[in-house]
Amino acid sequence: MLDPMAHSRTARTAAFFDLDKTIIARSSTLAFSRPFYAGGLINRRTVLRSAYAQFVYLLGGADHDQMERMREYLSAMCTGWDVETVKAIVADTLHHIVTPMIHEEAVELIDEHHAAGRDVVIVSSSGAEVVEPIGAMLGADKVIATRMVVADGKYTGEIEEYAYGPYKATAMLALAEAEGYDLENSYAYSDSVTDEPMLAAVGHPFAVNPDKALRRLAVARDWPVLDFSEPVGLAERGRFHEVRRPAMATVAVAGLAAGALLLAARRRARRTEN
């Protein structure tokens, strides 16, 4: 697909990948709603609302208004969450939740860019606590993601850096300046028209599984369109990098298991009494 010899010998280049619906088939943040429920972070009603939000996100293109509503919803949902608990849950369920959603074509493309000597950068509006472990698993060199304000180890609900729309391009330009990337010879991949600034920031933009608006834009600007649909096969999943679990992960999972056993015991006791 790519020519490794095309890599510039005089300047560093990079390949910037959107995450949701580009590398993986769904919203990375909403995909963790059930593990967050099991970990006591959200209730059943919130799980159902997350499932509905996922459905809306997949059904239509994620336009500006939808992304703003999702941002507000997720900010409200995570207010008060313990940061280390979130990291532990994500680390422990990462391969089970995310790996089946990864597009094989995206993984091959990441490998080809690395072979060509380019850094791979994941650029996502999802939270860093979710995006960074996924990036590590995929072997990404850098991650640009939304970052929440933390106070006393808990999320306040406020957003420190929102990696969405034009802010993605701003972050890419800052990273390019810091790392010495030649953006004119770099690549970018996304599914959404809201990422037009991100795609326009590089010399080689690609629309991946594009929404209707981005598909029209890609045709108008003669941007290549890629369709990813093949999930990573079971035999191929061993090539993903192991992500180091936080020390708290083992404790958190043990606590969840103990809680589940205690709840089951109480239910059995109540049935016996009746």
Automatic annotation (TrEMBL):
Keywords, sorted A to Z: Hydrolase, Magnesium, Membrane, Metal-binding, Transmembrane, Transmembrane helix
Transmembrane regions: 247-265
SUPFAM superfamilies tied to this protein: HAD-like (SSF56784)
Gene3D superfamilies (alphabetical): HAD superfamily/HAD-like, SG protein - dephosphorylation function
Matches recorded under InterPro entries: HAD-like_SerB, HAD-like_sf, HAD_hydro_SerB1, HAD_sf
CDD domains per record: HAD_PGPPase
Gene Ontology molecular function: hydrolase activity; metal ion binding
Keyword Lipid metabolism attached: no
Matching Pfam families: HAD (PF12710)
Stated family: Belongs to the HAD-like hydrolase superfamily. SerB family.
NCBIfam families, per the entry: HAD-SF-IB, HAD-SF-IB-hyp1
Name this polypeptide is given: HAD superfamily hydrolase (TIGR01490 family)
